[in-house]
Amino acid sequence: MDSLAAWFKWLYEATGIKLTIFYDHYDRLRFFEGLGITLELSAVVLVLSLVFGVIVTWLCGSSKMWLRRSMGVYIELFRNTPPLVQIYFFYFAIGPLLPKFEGEPILGSLGWAIVALTLLETAFTAEILRAGVEAVPKATIEAAQALGYSRTQVLLRIIMPLALRVSMPALNNNLVNLVKTTTLGYAIAVPELLHASSQIWSEQVNVPEMMIVLLITYIAIVGLINQVMHWLEKSFELPGYGQ
Amino acid sequence: MKHIKPSLFKMLGLLGAAALLSINSAWAQVDTLASIKQKGKIVVGVKADYKPFGYLDPSGKIVGFEIDMANEIAKNLGVELEMVPVIGANRMEFVSRGRIDLMVATMAYKPERATVVGIPEPFYYASAVALWGKKDSGLKNWPDLKGKTICGVQGAYYNRRAGDEFGAKLLTFKAAPEALAALEAGNCMGFVFDSTFFAGLAGEPKWEAFAITLPLIDPEPWGMGVRKEDAKFVDYLSATLKEWHKTGFIIGLEKKWGLPATPYLIEQQTKFK
């Protein structure tokens, strides 16, 4: 580790390429904490949005009109407004209105980022799953109903496994989008990767170097996700379904 | 051809004369003090949008800390004061072109700036880094910030010191309004920023319970500006500034305009006593 730090210091002295994240303890701390927060944020929002996405899709298919309508309104609202505006709205407009716990607000920047991004991603995931659900042949569902499955059982045991496999590519796309959207936390002081990097480059005046490091890091994260999803798709393959 | 030739010469002649005249005028203006005494007035460039250094009062008059200084200079010279509003982008050009005789416009001293305009020393003020927080927060020194959450503005050079040296947890936003909103909402217990910014907030009712709670650190001095070739004027202003530091005139102005006590002025006063 020390030799790595020494090499980068030499690089700066020899060529002027400043990569302080490798040899300055404070910059390194901030950068890797930022990376951790980006990954944490992405993972938490992914899991929550999948769970809630399934619930919303189920509600969209319910027989009660008011449920369908209200879910429709929710999805429209979060698809039609810019994510940055949503984040600002939650943190600066709604945050101060909520009651305080021991003098401090209940949700900090990270909390609000999770809330805002989950609501956004749930809306997108619900729409993607709806497409997957509609891809399940009516005949299969009727057969399940004829066999005596209840509505919930049909959803969980018949529809969802098929719908998830069909929407896997679109969900993968959504996940990549999610990782990139976490950079919006920058606006409400979530110490994620972009925020940490921007602080570092303002102090050290090494904008091009940090930009390249950022790009490479995001490409690496997204590349890794793509590989994992590819492996998942392969392992979930069903004969006859989109091979 | 016959019709054009004479007018072409005329044009060249006029251009040549204009060039000679402009060089001549640059030489002629080097003794600003003499020309001020001759005109009977001094033209000073000031800010009109930076409370409390130079801003417009409700009646539309320019008032402020720096205007008081300009008035004092005019009084000492026995001439009238004419003020010209300037902004950061044009203040140095105005003075080097001769549009204004003197510039007192919240200009932080930077070595590159000293190559464009003449900056008399000692400097008349220094902005510093301050923490705006609740009056009853119980903070005495900067190291007390360890582990506490404070708001800041992204890119400020002093954020590192607050985070690394003092161990505070920084919540940085894109601009001061967002950071103030977060402070008001209780997301952090203080806002670290330029001390002069807070002087503008001090009067407002919603900031009643807030004040600059820690001593100011990291001062950045401010200087006046005059034409670079004007050594006589620079010397005159240097002498005036030394006198002001000695008598505590500037410290008096600081109190008058509700600015936090800058350690820089106190040390300048002891230096010139």
List the helices and strands and how they pair.
The complex is a heterodimer of chains A (243) and B (273).
Chain A: H1 2-15, H2 25-60, H3 65-80, H4 83-94, E1 100-101, E2 104-105, H5 109-134, H6 138-146, H7 151-181, H8 193-204, H9 207-235
Helix pairs in contact in A: 2-5, 2-7, 2-8, 3-5, 4-5, 5-7, 6-7, 7-9, 8-9
Chain B: H1 4-28, H2 32-39, E1 41-47, E2 49-50, E3 54-56, E4 62-63, H3 65-77, E5 80-86, H4 91-97, E6 102-104, H5 111-114, E7 125-134, E8 149-153, H6 159-165, E9 169-173, H7 176-185, E10 190-194, H8 195-199, E11 210-212, E12 217-222, H9 231-247, H10 249-256, H11 263-272
Parallel strand pairs in B: 1-5, 1-6, 8-9
Antiparallel strand pairs in B: 2-3, 3-4, 7-10, 7-11, 7-12
How do the helices and strands follow one another from N- to C-terminus of chain B? HHEEEEHEHEHEEHEHEHEEHHH
**What oligomeric state best describes the polypeptide chains here?**
heterodimer
**Which secondary-structure class do the elements of chain A indicate?**
mainly alpha
Topology-level CATH name of chain A: MetI-like fold
Task: Summarize model confidence as the mean pLDDT of chain B.
Answer: 84
What is the CATH superfamily label of the largest domain in chain B?
Periplasmic binding protein-like II
Q: How is the largest sheet of chain A built, in terms of strand order?
A: 1-2
Percentage of residues in helical conformation of chain A: over 70%
Overall CATH class of chain A? Mainly Alpha
Number of helices of chain B: 11
Q: How many helical stretches of chain A?
A: 9
Radius of gyration of chain B: 23 Å
Largest interface: chains, residues each: A-B, 18 and 20 residues
What is the share of helical residues of chain B? 40-55%
**Structural class by sheet pairing and helices of chain B:** alpha/beta
CATH architectural group of the largest domain in chain B: 3-Layer(aba) Sandwich
